[in-house]
Amino acid sequence: MNGERKPGVLDRALRLFAEVKAGEGANVVILAVNVFILLTAYSMMKPLRDGLILGEKGPEFTAYMSAAMAFLLIPVIAGYGKLADRFPRRRLINVVTLFFAACCLVFFLAGTGGLQIGIVFFIWIGIFSAMILAQFWGFANDLYTNEEGERLFPIVAVGAAVGAIAGATIVKEMIIPLGLYLPMLFAGALLVMSLFLTNWVDRRERQRTEGAVDPGSSTAFAPAATGEFRMDTGEFKNLREALREALEKEARGETVADEPQRAEPAEPQIEAGRGAFAMVFKTRYLLYIAILILILNWVNTNGENLLRFLITDSAQTAVQSGTAAAATVEQYIGDFYAGFHKWVNIAALVIQLFLVSRIIKHAGIHVAVMILPLIALGSYALIAVYPVLEYVRWAKTAENATDYSLQNTVQNALFLPTTREQKYKAKQVTDSFSKRAGDTLAALTVFVVVTFTGTSIRAFALLNLLLVLIWLAVAYRIGREYRELVRTGRPPV
Q1: I need a surface site. Which of 170, 223, 252, 414 has the fewest CB within 10 A?
Q2: CB distance 186 to 43 below 8 Å
């Protein structure tokens, strides 16, 4: 698709971090800056979320809010799917992002007006963070082939790692002097800024891959959610037509070793316009991904809740004794989390820059998807033995840094061999609903642990060790499925 073009200065410079071919550098940098802005906005709001909700309600209450997010996401994802069935990808992204930006303004006005917004803001940011990033990565998956995505996603994800650092660093300097509400306005403005880059890269990629396509049937006008998939050549092909061709070859007795094997009729499984949840539950590969993300977030949220119990106790003790620099418990907690997220994101950036592309290139996606659960296994084994704040903080730093870098890249690359409909609709289920369902199970975990053990840190850690073993088994199955999908060149059905 790049012809005989010679690599430019930017292409060659990016080869320090990943394999970049001629002409690919500019677009991948635009995408990286795009997700940088999104993650900066989100990372600015994470400490605000924690400071508001922990100050108003306490750590137990935060866990229970995850159930509300999961239930709210069911109609929200259904509505998003309706928009994806109607709107081209550019309009879909514009509408959804502007809605979230407007919400930031509403929260600023409500907070400065004296209203308690901790609960609503906590639920909103849980929905926002999952949906906006799932949408971005669905868009990125829509732009590249399997081979291109595996090479270039590590660079795109650098933008996410840097944005997370920038957001945490900026908001850490803002919270004490400016409070918890003004940063919301800055975050909303960043969301609006991101749309300029989204529209720019959308136009550039259409010129690159759809120059010979009739504009009326291109991604500029076609709905985002279609049954098409991107072939290795870069062109889109309808899944129904591809499966029909495979069946015709079989009927003629031709060799179709690389075609998908199906004994039953394929037609009912590939209709565009299906509900997002039905699509996931009827497609084994997507269901595996949903289960993996559910367990991942169950484990991670158990760890986050564990950390919240410890830091809340520490904050109350420090503020009451007068040894804290912060005037309130909320500010103490917000300041702690700003520093915590900052160091997590610095470690994530180092991993993203120098390790992720090399791991994917030399070990493959099927191996890379198993690395985070192995690290989590070690982290919670340590916490089970040494359940104190400093050990928990650094164990969670290692886990979260790998999650935000390698796991984030691999998890998004798993959607490269899927249809456009699966990228936009099913990804909202796996990345949004499954995350919050995992958080809900973590909330039930809090209830059980608090009821029977009285916030036992060791009990959280031991449960996580069991969950991580299941996570490893699911990751292994996904790795096998992914390799087969890439080998056949056909999306999951």
Answers
A1: 252
A2: no
Q: 12-216+273-488 in CATH: which number? A: 1.20.1250.20
Under 8 Å between Cβ of 91 and 223:
no
Distance CA 27, CA 155 (A): 11
For the stretch 170-196, pLDDT in tens is: 888 887 777 788 889 999 999 999 999
Nearest to 53 by CA among 113, 126, 128: 126
Torsion, Cα of 28, 208, 423, 298 (10° steps) = -10
- In our burial notation (b when 16+ CB lie closer than 10 A, e otherwise), range 228-264 reads bbbeeebebbebbebbeebeeeeeeeeebeebbeeee
The half-sphere exposure of 442 on its side-chain side, counting CA atoms within 13 A, is 32
The interaxial angle of helices 284-321 and 25-56, nearest 10 deg, is 50
| Sole residue written with tokens 């994101």 | 345
Helix (H, G, I), strand (E, B) or coil at 230: strand
* Separation between Cα atoms, residue 3 and residue 125, nearest integer Å: 44
Query: Can you state the angle between helices 284-321 and 434-453, rounded to 10 degrees?
Result: 50
Q: CA torsion sign, 321 to 327 to 329 to 332?
A: negative
- How confident is the model over 48-76, as pLDDT tens digits? 887 787 766 666 676 667 788 888 999 99
Output b/e per residue, 337-361; b: 16+ Cβ within 10 A. Answer: bbebbbbbbbbbbebbbebbbebbe
In whole angstroms, what is the distance from residue 164 CA to residue 202 CA? 24
CB atoms under 10 Å from CB of 86, counted, come to: 12
Length of the chain: 493
Closest residue by Cα to residue 191 from 41, 36, 30: 41
User: Taking the CB of residue 394, how many other CB atoms lie within 10 A of it?
Assistant: 14
Domain boundaries, the chain: 12-216+273-488
Residue 157: how many other CB atoms lie within 10 Å: 30
Q: Are 392 and 340 within 8 A, CB to CB?
A: no
Tokens standing for residue 444: 């039930």
**pLDDT, tens digit, 9 for 90 and up, residues 383-413:** 888 888 788 888 899 999 999 899 999 999 9
Of 428, 164, 435, the closest CA to residue 292 belongs to: 435
* Closest-CA residue to 69 (of 443, 349, 361, 481): 443
What DSSP assignment string belongs to 172-222? HHHHHHH-SSHHHHHHHHHHHHHHHHHHHHHHHHHHHH-TTS-GGGSTTTS
